[in-house]
Design a protein that fits this description.
5 helices, 4 strands, Arc Repressor Mutant, subunit A, Alpha-Beta Plaits, alpha+beta
């Protein structure tokens, strides 16, 4: 399937995207007033952005510490061979405790954010990954998160518009 090219965004589209990042539950009427459009015109733009895949979805931001005291670990993962990437990515994507994983440049292959109820479960998970010879995990360096300093709240508006060229 060929990916759709994102539509050209104007300043109002950028305002819509920034506003929805800040409040995804905003009504179309409030959103329209905030960006200076009629409700109908605003709804049409939001639908166009959704259909183009620019708006990928909406979700609630959960404050997990209100429910439990999980362990957040940032894990640097190094593979033995480059040929194992596909198998590793398939496996890591199937683990629900892995809430994010990024392939990165530099001395490690991946950085994963893993959230577990306790360190014992985290250790069990990492042992399983290392012990599975088919995955080829050479090493996992763990960084236990102590507290958030700044959490992701959306992309800066200056990154939401495509530069010409």
């Amino acid at each position: 399937m060929v990916a759709k090219r994102a539509p050209a965004l104007d300043a109002i589209d950028v305002k819509i995207l920034a506003a929805l990042q800040a409040d995804g539950r905003s009504t179309i009427q409030k959103l329209a007033a905030r960006v200076g459009l009629s409700a109908r015109a605003c709804l049409e733009r939001v639908r166009r952005l959704e259909q183009a895949g620019v708006i990928a979805g909406y979700q609630a931001v959960i404050e997990l510490r209100q429910l439990s005291r999980p362990v957040n670990v940032f894990a640097e993962i190094i593979l033995e061979k480059q040929a194992n990437h596909g198998r590793f990515e398939k496996r890591i994507s199937a683990i629900d405790s892995v809430v994010e994983c990024w392939e990165v440049s530099g001395g490690v292959d991946y950085i994963a954010r893993i959230v577990c109820p306790d360190l014992a479960e985290y250790q069990e998970l990492t042992n399983e990954l290392i012990d599975d010879e088919a995955l080829g995990v050479a090493r996992i360096v763990s960084h236990v998160a102590l507290r958030p300093v700044r959490r992701f709240t959306g992309y800066p508006a200056r990154l939401l518009s495509r530069k010409p060229g």
